[in-house]
Amino acid sequence: THKPVLSWLTLCSPLHSFHFHIHIRYHIMDPAVGASRTIYVGNIPASIDEPTLRQLFANCGVVTAVKFAGQEGYRTRFVFVEFQDPSQAATACHLNGLQIADCAIRVQMSRSTIG
């Protein structure tokens, strides 16, 4: 297990000295954690449906879940795609910048799981 890093910061002015306690948290992704199997896909055209998205990412691996997010009625949305294996999610990140319709999609590892 990893412990948070604690640090002290002192800011001084001619009349006052300010002390701040900074609590820094960090997270190391463990391949066994679901977040490492999940990607964020942004700038998806609103016309793209789940079966089309699953077909697109099926070339990267086994898609276990898809969750659309963002408000309907906009030109683009974003989606979370979960894979069976972390290496499949990493492979899917290579599709970053792919043109779908008139949109270049953004693909990156997600910081959260589908849930």
Automatic annotation (TrEMBL):
SMART domains per record: RRM
Gene Ontology MF, one: RNA binding
PROSITE patterns: RRM
Record keywords: RNA-binding
Pfam families with a match to the protein in the record: RRM_1
Residue intervals of the RRM domain: 37-112
Domain of life where this protein originates: Eukaryota
UniProt-recorded name of the protein: RRM domain-containing protein
